[in-house]
UniProtKB/TrEMBL annotation:
<feature type="transmembrane region" description="Helical">
    <location>
        <begin position="21"/>
        <end position="41"/>
    </location>
</feature>
<dbReference type="InterPro" id="IPR036890">
    <property type="entry name" value="HATPase_C_sf"/>
</dbReference>
<dbReference type="InterPro" id="IPR011990">
    <property type="entry name" value="TPR-like_helical_dom_sf"/>
</dbReference>
<keyword id="KW-0812">Transmembrane</keyword>
<keyword id="KW-0808">Transferase</keyword>
<dbReference type="GO" id="GO:0000155">
    <property type="term" value="F:phosphorelay sensor kinase activity"/>
</dbReference>
<feature type="transmembrane region" description="Helical">
    <location>
        <begin position="433"/>
        <end position="453"/>
    </location>
</feature>
<keyword id="KW-0418">Kinase</keyword>
<keyword id="KW-0547">Nucleotide-binding</keyword>
<keyword id="KW-0902">Two-component regulatory system</keyword>
<dbReference type="InterPro" id="IPR019734">
    <property type="entry name" value="TPR_rpt"/>
</dbReference>
<dbReference type="Pfam" id="PF13181">
    <property type="entry name" value="TPR_8"/>
</dbReference>
<dbReference type="Pfam" id="PF07730">
    <property type="entry name" value="HisKA_3"/>
</dbReference>
<dbReference type="InterPro" id="IPR011712">
    <property type="entry name" value="Sig_transdc_His_kin_sub3_dim/P"/>
</dbReference>
<dbReference type="GO" id="GO:0046983">
    <property type="term" value="F:protein dimerization activity"/>
</dbReference>
<feature type="domain" description="Histidine kinase">
    <location>
        <begin position="599"/>
        <end position="686"/>
    </location>
</feature>
<dbReference type="InterPro" id="IPR050482">
    <property type="entry name" value="Sensor_HK_TwoCompSys"/>
</dbReference>
Length: 686
């Protein structure tokens, strides 16, 4: 069973500030958290190369001729590993083959491999199920204490469990799982390369909860481990991690030597991440030791580096850091100017750590300028932001734990029902044997046995019905998770487009206008310049339209009725379709946001279908809100179609409509005839 390791997205480790420090500065230890398993991979790695396809074909051929079941299981696991993102359906097929072999051979170890593989395939979209399957695999592996392969598989599962708990802010549980994995590696394979990655994860986790001594100790272990190997990249990362931990633990200037070494290796390997991070950590060191001029020097280098590679958040944070240093040097006006510059790159409309620091630094600036009214106003806002961030962190932990509890509860209920079913099946066999023996008995006894059997059958049907209901609930829960995940991703992408790309395009426009004012151009060049500016304006409007379609602001701010009215008006004004929107009882109705988004997406998909396929001139969208129910009617005067087509349809749009209606426990009715248009009636429970 092959495990693939790779670098997961970075997680910041917050540094500790003494209470006596007045100013805040974005001093984050940019340390990587690594996965020893099969978690998220970049989009560029999701399609197999031709060489990988040849390897997979070779492994498939080996399975066909392999006689040893253990080797077969390993081959299935290896292929599924390689297909986990490129071909999920085929990957699951190999997982089912392992499950089949486990059942056919009554092999508990194979069953553990099946659970472990299922967990890796579920982590991206169903993390709760993935955690449950990892835990099942570990319980099975524990039955084979002398099996080295089973023990190392347990270690891999522990690391992935730790990473998932870390990502959900459950840091203590993450550390506990990491330490269990360390015990296994030290016992079974102390030279395993995954151990070095594990030490990095432990140093980050301890640093996150401000236990810097423990984090420093594990980063030192990671450095010692990397030095024994030959991989330059591993040594570079270990040098950076150890130097960064020395800085965050405030162990003098010893960390600078390791950071310089890491930067030299990063320059050789052209690793931008560590080149930037080393200078950033040095700037942080000089700030913490009150050498503010030196800190400004390195933060300025980081700022120029971020500008070179158009990293908007890093540009904003470095402006924020420079302003803090200038405030410490009693240069409030320069500090204020850099704070204003940071606001051009960071979104201060949402509550983040950067916004907290922005307010704290402006409070100090106004204090130095003698404007105590504004200083106190900014200081008062800091407390509210801190409380909001703390509450958001707690809510995330509670949601994660509640989801774990609900999943475990459902699993226990299913296991209990299945155990009861097995006992009942055994009881049926026993009663049947008795019936065969006493078949020549008296009629009265036969009648009693028949009645008993019928009673039992009724109970069995009730049990099966309950299992079916639980399966339906599980399917609805999975659908809800998918819909929420889809809307969260749409929201994130919309924000990234609007705040990131939109800000960059606006900045480009501002820069070009500034250049125009300082340049003398011929009339031809001036005309070409204006055409370019018009094209840039069109690009900004198109980007904002796309962001609005992905997550309409009106839906979040003003509710479903306003969002639908705006959407229909936009379609109408575009000339694509004459659309009339009507609503009854919806203006002041209170509808859960998830339900509102779902209704909006259904109507959006139906209108899109009319525009694309119906050939209609006009349409009506009518939404009625009654007690606990919403009725949606969408009609058009298009060419119509045979509704029997829908039963065979595999289109994504129609499938999405059905899933959303099912999620809201609604009913869907479509009436259409050729040449007479189409009418869709949806009744939803909200």
């Amino acid at each position: 069973m092959v495990r693939i390791k790779f670098r997961e997205k970075t997680h910041p480790m917050p540094t500790h500030h003494e209470p006596s420090q007045r100013l805040s500065i974005t001093c984050f230890f940019i340390a990587g958290v690594f996965a020893i398993g099969l978690l998220h991979v970049p989009a560029s790695a999701q399609l197999p190369s031709s060489a990988q396809k040849e390897l997979i074909d070779s492994l498939e051929n080996k399975i066909k001729i392999e006689k040893n079941d253990t080797v077969k299981v390993r081959l299935h696991f290896q292929i599924a590993n390689k297909l986990r993102t490129a071909d999920t359906t085929n990957a699951w097929r190999h997982q089912r083959e392992i499950t089949r072999l486990a059942e056919e051979k009554k092999n508990d170890y194979f069953r553990g491999e099946s659970y472990a593989l299922a967990a890796t395939l579920q982590l991206a979209n169903h993390p709760q199920e993935g955690i449950g399957n990892f835990e099942k695999a570990i319980r099975i592996y524990s039955k084979y204490p002398e099996n080295r392969r089973a023990n190392l598989s347990s270690a891999t599962a522990y690391v992935n469990l730790g990473l998932l708990h870390y990502q959900n802010n459950d840091y203590q549980t993450a550390i506990e799982n990491y330490l269990r994995a360390e015990d296994v590696y030290l016992r079974e394979d102390p030279r395993n390369s995954d151990l070095g990655i594990l030490y990095s994860n432990l140093s980050v986790a301890y640093g996150t909860i401000n236990k810097y001594e423990e984090g420093l100790a594990f980063s030192k272990k990671g450095l010692d481990f990397a030095r024994r190997g030959k991989d330059k990249a591993s040594r570079m990362g270990a040098l950076y991690a150890y130097g960064g931990n020395l800085v965050t633990a405030k162990k003098g200037d010893g960390g600078l030597v390791f950071l310089d070494s890491a930067k030299i290796m990063a320059t050789e390997l052209n690793n931008l991440y560590y080149m930037y991070g080393s200078d950033f950590m040095k700037a942080m060191y000089y700030y913490n030791t009150k050498q503010y001029d030196q800190a400004i020097r390195y933060y300025t280098e980081c700022l120029n580096f971020a500008k070179k590679y158009n990293s908007t958040p890093d540009i904003g944070n470095n402006f924020l850091n420079i302003s803090a240093c200038e405030a410490e040097l009693k240069k409030p006006r320069l500090a204020a100017a850099h704070l204003d510059s940071s606001a051009k790159y960071l979104d201060y409309s949402i509550r983040t750590v950067s916004k907290q620091m922005y307010f704290e630094n402006y409070a100090e600036v106004y204090k130095q300028l003698g404007n105590f009214t504004k200083a106190f106003a900014y200081k008062d806002s800091v407390g509210a932001i801190k409380d909001s961030l703390y509450q958001a962190d707690n809510i995330k932990q509670l949601e994660f734990r509640q989801a774990r509890y609900n999943y475990e509860k459902r699993q226990n209920e299913i296991e209990q029902l299945e155990a009861g079913k097995r006992l009942q099946e055994a009881s049926i066999k026993q009663k049947n044997m008795i019936n065969y023996v006493l078949i020549g008995g008296t009629g009265a006894l036969l009648l009693i046995l028949v009645l008993s059997y019928r009673t039992y059958r009724q109970k069995q049907k009730l049990q099966l019905q309950r299992i079916s209901e639980l399966e339906v609930e599980k399917k609805l829960a999975a659908t809800e998770a998918v819909l929420k995940g889809e809307e969260q991703e749409r929201t994130r992408l919309a924000k990234d487009l609007h705040d990131g790309l939109g800000g960059m395009l606006s900045g480009i426009k501002y820069g070009l206008n500034t250049m125009k004012g300082n340049q003398i151009m011929t009339p031809e060049n001036a005309q070409a310049f204006e055409r370019s500016m018009d094209m840039l304006d069109s690009s900004i409007r198109e980007m904002r339209r796309v962001a609005h379609n992905m997550m309409p602001e009106a839906l979040v701010k003003f509710g479903l009725d306003t969002a639908l009215r705006d959407y229909c008006n936009d379609i109408h004004q575009s000339g694509a379709l004459q659309i009339n929107y009507q609503s009854f009882g919806l203006e002041n109705a209170s509808i859960d946001q998830t339900a509102a988004i779902t209704i909006y997406r259904v109507i959006q998909e139906l209108v899109t279908n009319i525009v694309k396929h119906a050939g209609a001139r006009s349409a009506i969208v009518q939404v009625t809100k009654n007690e606990g129910a919403v009725s949606v009617t969408v009609e058009d005067d298009g060419k119509g179609f045979d509704t029997a087509i829908l039963r065979r349809s595999t289109g994504i749009g129609w499938t999405n409509i059905q899933h959303r209606v099912e999620f809201l426990k609604g009913k869907l009715d479509v009436n259409s005839q050729a040449g007479k248009g189409t009418s869709v009636l949806i009744e939803l429970t909200v």
